[in-house]
Amino acid sequence: MTEGRTARIAFIGAGLHATESLYPNIPFIPEFDFVALCDKDKAKAEQAARRFGIWHWFTDVETMLEEIEPDGCCVCGPPAMHHEVGLQVLRRGIPLFVEKPLADSLEGALELAQAAKEHGTWGMVGFMKRFAPANVLAKEFMGSAEFGDLSSLTVTHGCGPYENTRKMLHFNGIHIIDLARFLGGDVERVFAYSSDGGNGNLGIAATGKLEGGGVVQISQNSGHTWEDCYESVYASGSKAAVFVDGSKDVEVISPTARFAAGDGLKLFGFRSRHTVSGNIAFWWAGGHYQRGYWGELSRFARACLGLVPSSPTLEEGVKAHQVIEAILESAACGREVTVSAAPDPAVP
């Protein structure tokens, strides 16, 4: 591998999330050569190309892929587009980075994963919370001897209003579901309740059994405003615990991780705190490094060069869809549901 080589990567989609959360990170990734972009809306494509200094822009996906022949391709738009355009990319044997959710159905997500196998390529899904520094540190600590064996994991997220529970879980809940899997492993079975407070104020509370033996609590609601979302993670192990506030701050609760021994003191809740915000969290573009957008795109570029394995894979995206289907089915039928690839079409 030649040192300093870059991956020639094209981007499909020039909407709000792409241009405000993803594109701004690319200049800070040495391995990412942004060679072309495409959007069916000519005005969006032209404006994004001008704003980010991209010479080659297109309004037709096949034309761009044919002319540019990129090393990899990113896709960001609505779920149906992820599925449709993602298949176009994979069927050409081109590695794919696709935003979550993979598709608007579990069947569509499975089709993407299968297409990658059939055409000898691979894909990544945009679960950026896996790359937020606070969550990376939490996972590292949870894998240490100081943490011990995971007994309980609680993940909570509150966002702005949605018109139905399925959409809320696919667009926001899927992030904390994947974060739970990233930190705690696969979910074996779930029992869930749902609520509807009107005006888009929805709630899901699910308890799950992890294949590794611990339990997980997943809470997602749409009772917040979009300007004031909420997120937290609390993991309890056999020797210590860890709390992550909004993918920003990590707090370790452990007798062996204190900043001082506290000899002769009996202090309830005496603990240490490690913060990863400050000078690295908001160093550009509203904290994209802290939130994980830089990390996921950097990983994709390096995976295109063969420097690292692709992760999280399309199969990881499928598993998140499977957990969502199990939660929805359990909330509808009022019983425990085993997480599997078979969704219940009767669930709204």
User: What sort of overall outline do the alpha carbons produce when their principal axes are compared?
Assistant: globular
H/E element sequence: EHEHEHEHEHEHEHEEEEEEEHHHE
CATH architecture of the largest domain: 2-Layer Sandwich
The side-by-side strand order for the widest beta sheet comes to: 14-13-12-11-7-10-9-8-15
Q: Mean of residue pLDDT?
A: 89
Structural class from helices and strands? alpha/beta
Looking at the structure, the CATH topology of the largest domain is Dihydrodipicolinate Reductase, domain 2
Beta content comes to 25-35%
Segments where pLDDT lies below 50 for 5+ residues? 277-286, 341-348
> What percentage of residues falls in helices of 4 or more residues?
25-40%
The separation of the N and C termini measures 50 Å
Q: Count the E strands.
A: 15
* Structural domains: how many: 2
Structural write-up:
With 348 residues, this protein is of the alpha/beta class. It folds into 2 domains: 7-121, Rossmann fold (3-Layer(aba) Sandwich); 130-291, 2-Layer Sandwich (Dihydrodipicolinate Reductase, domain 2). It has helices at residues 16-22, 42-52, 61-68, 79-90, 106-118, 133-142, 165-184, 288-291, 293-304, 314-333; strands at residues 7-12, 32-38, 56-58, 72-75, 96-99, 123-126, 150-158, 187-196, 202-210, 215-221, 230-237, 241-245, 249-253, 272-275, 337-338. The strands form 2 sheets. The chain has a 9-stranded mixed beta sheet. Strands 3-2-1-4-5-6 form a 6-stranded parallel beta sheet, sandwiched between helices. The relative contact order is 0.16. The model is unreliable at 277-286 and 341-348 (pLDDT under 50).
